[in-house]
Amino acid sequence: MSHLNMKRVLLTTLTALTCALPAVPRAVAQDCSRDAMLVFDGSASMAELGFDQTAPTRIEDARTALRRALPQIAPVRRVGLLTYGPGPEGSCDGIKLKFPPVTDAAQPIIDAIDLMDPAGLTPLTEAVAEAARVLNHTTTPGIVVLVTDGNETCGGRPCALGAELAATSANLTVHVIGFRVVADPFAWDSPEAGIYTDGSSIARCISDQTGGMYVATDTVDELTEALRKTLGCALIG
User: Fold this and answer.
1) How many helices (H) and strands (E) does the chain have?
2) Residues 187, 153: contact at Cβ < 8 Å?
3) Helices (H), 115-203
């Protein structure tokens, strides 16, 4: 066989192999490339002790879950951090943007949550709205992951926000992770309280209307997996 014919055979073989390989779905690449904001609950209930006074508090277990999950997520997705809660007792003014999405955010997020001293109420609606603004949600695709142990207690309307984000955003998905949510409708300060009767946080309205997931978790392992599932992407294990 001549040298020219050998090159033609090799080229034909390589072309056939390339066509046979499964294409990477566009949705996967887009999902991994979307910036994300983690909205983390730092309200007083995160530090409350349960019936077992020796058991870890929610904030302690949440820190463990973050240490497990984030090192797998941060290398493939830019993540930012916004917290709410810490502040004077009974305050709704504790929303703090720690930083917008950055590369390799695992350690900065872990460090920030380690320093958090839970206090204050739960302005989760305004916190998610602020995270969406940080992501420039009207023009840029993005992801918000809210981790909360309760419901809106500052008068916000999560269902109204969900509808607004769905109507005005350029592919913004909000996922909500409920961590040991206490279903106490008498403590909620939202005109939408009572929509969910299964113990879900009213924040579920936001995920339902933006095509996101609501994940109920009780253990460190479940919270770790929920963080991987919502902040991670299809290229992670």
Assistant:
1) 8, 6
2) yes
3) 124-134, 158-168
- What per-residue confidence (pLDDT) applies to 177? 97
**Cα angle vertex 153, ends 145, 106, to 5°?**
25
Residues 6+ apart with CB under 8 A from 113: 40, 59, 62, 63, 66, 83
Give pLDDT tens digits for 195-233.
666 667 888 999 999 999 999 999 999 999 999 999 988
Residue 80 β-bridge partners: 37
Confidence of residue 7 (pLDDT cuts 50, 70, 90): very low
The residues near 114 (Cβ < 8 Å, ≥ 6 apart) are 63
- Report whether 53 contacts 82 (CB < 8 A): no
Sequence-ordered strand ranges (E) for 71-212: 79-84, 96-102, 142-148, 172-179
Residue 85, Cα to own-chain centre: how many angstroms?
Answer: 17
Nearest Cα residue to 37 out of 87, 114, 109: 109
pLDDT at position 172 over 80: yes
Centroid of chain to Cα 55: 26
Shortest CA distance to 229 belongs to which of 59, 30, 73? 73
Q: Determine the length of the chain.
A: 237
In 3-state terms, what secondary structure has residue 116? coil
- d(Cα 235, Cα 83) in Å, to the nearest integer? 27
Burial class (CB in 10 A: 0-12, 13-18, 19+), 224: buried
Token pair recorded at residue 218: 């009780």
Which residue type, as a one-letter code, is found at position 170? Answer: A
Q: What pTM, to 2 d.p., does this model score?
A: 0.82
